[in-house]
């Protein structure tokens, strides 16, 4: 870092934007947009901008807490509402509730949102055409400086909330704790997060040996016989030619094994997933 940069005031700039595929745009597209936003902030001459996603942090922490803290603590936030990602709109809502300096950008394929229509948007081309992106970065550069300086010079400056009347702006309270207590709280947060992840994963994963073996074997026979009867080679072909769900339901007397239709649906999905992954030994009928 140069001596001149060391003398500049450091500004923490948060980014709120999509990171995964949405509205026909890939993950790589959003990564490129993120780079454009970071370059625009880095080119500001008056300040030394440190720009990162609000979900990022140098220390280890629970992501939900980290996002809220960064949304609040950032000196200024750039929010890209392109594609109107629900998480992005929620995080933008939090930032606007704090009524802190915020710049909203969007691509030229995304419609304006009514609720934030009083805020000026900066627009860029979704195809990221070079000449227009150069112009966009210049406009964003100027907007960053102007918004930051206006918020400091004018006590009445308001991004959004105060435009509708007098409100007490939300704030995050902070309190000091001993290192031991901080570590214990972090461990407890991690345990809770891990529990939620495990619970979600277990709900989504097919359960091994969860269903009656007799029902599995009978269903395997029904499916294998159906393959032979219809002379098909793939599961997709099979389910398009017959109502496999009803056939299995009838042939194995499913109500004997599954008291509710929901339980049978779970079993049916499990069997199809096995055939899709080809993890049934067709000779022995062993479930891997």
UniProtKB/TrEMBL annotation:
It comes from the Bacteria. This is RNA helicase. It comes from Clostridium magnum DSM 2767. The lineage of its organism: Bacteria, Bacillati, Bacillota, Clostridia, Eubacteriales.
């Amino acid at each position: 870092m140069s001596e001149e940069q060391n003398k500049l005031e450091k500004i923490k700039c948060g980014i709120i934007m999509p990171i995964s595929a949405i509205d026909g745009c890939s993950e790589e597209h959003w990564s490129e947009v993120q780079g454009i936003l970071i370059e625009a902030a880095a080119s500001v001459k008056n300040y030394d901008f440190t720009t990162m996603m609000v979900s990022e942090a140098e220390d280890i922490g629970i992501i939900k807490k980290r996002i809220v803290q960064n949304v609040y603590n950032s000196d200024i936030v750039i929010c890209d509402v392109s594609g109107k990602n629900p998480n992005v709109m929620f995080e933008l809502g939090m930032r606007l509730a704090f009524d802190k300096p915020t710049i909203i950008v969007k691509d030229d394929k995304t419609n304006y949102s009514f609720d934030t229509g009083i805020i000026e948007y900066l627009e860029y081309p979704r195809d990221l055409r070079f000449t227009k992106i150069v112009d966009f970065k210049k406009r964003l550069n100027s907007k960053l400086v102007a918004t930051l300086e206006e918020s400091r010079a004018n006590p009445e400056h308001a991004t959004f909330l105060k435009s509708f009347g007098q409100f007490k702006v939300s704030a995050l309270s902070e309190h000091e704790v001993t290192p031991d207590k901080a570590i214990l709280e972090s461990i407890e947060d991690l345990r809770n997060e891990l529990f939620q992840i495990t619970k979600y994963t277990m709900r989504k994963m097919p359960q091994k040996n969860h269903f009656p073996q007799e029902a599995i074997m009978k269903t395997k026979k029904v499916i294998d016989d159906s393959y032979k009867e219809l002379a098909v080679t793939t599961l997709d072909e099979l389910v398009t030619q017959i109502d496999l769900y009803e056939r299995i339901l009838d042939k194995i007397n499913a109500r004997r094994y599954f008291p509710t239709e929901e339980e049978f649906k779970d079993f049916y999905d499990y069997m199809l997933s096995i055939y899709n992954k080809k993890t049934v030994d067709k000779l022995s009928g062993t479930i891997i």
